[in-house]
Amino acid sequence: xxxxxxxxxxxxxxxxxxxxxxxxxxxxxxxxxxxxxxxxxxxxxxxxxxxxxxxxxxxxxxxxxxxxxxxxxxxxxxxxxxxxxxxxxxxxxxxxxxxxxxxxxxxxxxxxxxxxxxxxxxxxxxxxxxxxxxxxxxxxxxxxxxxxxxxxxxxxxxxxxxxxxxxxxxxxxxxxxxxxxxxxxxxxxxxxxxxxxxxxxxxxxxxxxxxxxxxxxxxxxxxxxxxxxxxxxxxxxxxxxxxxxxxxxxxxxxxxxxxxxxxxxxxxxxxxxxxxxxxxxxxxxxxxxxxxxxxxxxxxxxxxxxxxxxxxxxxxxxxxxxxxxxxxxxxxxxxxxxxxxxxxxxxxxxxxxxxxxxxxxxxxxxxxxxxxxxxxxxxxx
Length: 381
Ligand SMILES: *Cc1c(COP(=O)(O)O)cnc(C)c1O
What we know:
Layout: H1 3-10, E1 16-19, H2 21-38, E2 41-45, H3 52-59, E3 64-67, H4 70-78, E4 86-88, H5 95-103, E5 108-111, H6 114-126, E6 131-138, E7 160-161, H7 165-173, E8 178-184, H8 195-213, E9 220-222, H9 242-252, E10 260-265, H10 267-270, E11 274-285, E12 290-294, H11 303-307, E13 313-315, E14 322-328, E15 337-345, E16 352-355, E17 376-379
Parallel strand pairs: 1-17, 2-3, 2-10, 3-4, 4-5, 5-6, 6-7, 6-8, 8-9, 9-10, 12-14
Antiparallel strand pairs: 1-11, 11-12, 11-16, 13-16, 14-15
Bound molecules: pyridoxal-5'-phosphate.
């Protein structure tokens, strides 16, 4: 961040999210280009960041939307994402949400259970519509990521189990208001080991060849999201390696003739463009530790408390000797801690602190816990 930007920060009320829109544009450009090279379809996972200005920018790149609630579907449409590029997933879609998605004529419902598809069939019938559906399959592939964000192994709540798939397909084909168009997979988030995606391709190949033996070929395969970012060293990897990621699917997935591939990237598109900016309220000396107490708390950025997530922390306004600090928030919870034993230059009340790589699952998870104000947002220009 340059001096001018930091000067501007000094005039703003903290805490707030700062978004580097130049980086966001460059990241979207890189992702679109890498996907287009193979003719792959991109959908942005809105749950990663639903800030309206961020959505405007993403939408302007011609990317579709991946939604996990009715309100996200409504927001996607309001932000200008074309309905025919909107997909909608989630284990617990309510009747009201399903009706809304049917009304908006979205591209596809990614479905996770037969009872859900039966309800969609019934509601679509009432509305005189036919719903396009993809079955989310739990491929039993371990994403090698934190267990809270692993979704593709057999003992979690997501998707159809492999042994249920044939039955689900038969059932869908008997429903008058359901059009089965594809298979959907999403095995987890913050996946940095790309061989995991190769494993996913090979597993999906097996599933497809088994279905093919029964004469079943579906026109769409959606591989979900999950590509990780570099939290340890944001500047080492500001733009994720989209080319290598998509190349894996081009190399290892055996697409059937005419089959379209879809991806739902969230974190990798927006993660590095956002930082949480806050001020130091107090520096407190314990017996063995020094604490930097920020005016930002876990209500502004939940990831460290929720997933034990690591974020790089920078003092933007001090250049003193380095010392070790625990960097904490003001909230009455022990988990309200952004980093332990972090090396920072000598830190004082009033210093500006940036917590980096907060563009994804940051502002969207902010709450008013302790009746605190929601953080603001500020964009580079
Ligand atoms: C969360 C989610 C995504 C996006 O995941 P990222 O790790 O942010 O890329 C994609 N698809 C589904 C179904 C999701 O739930």
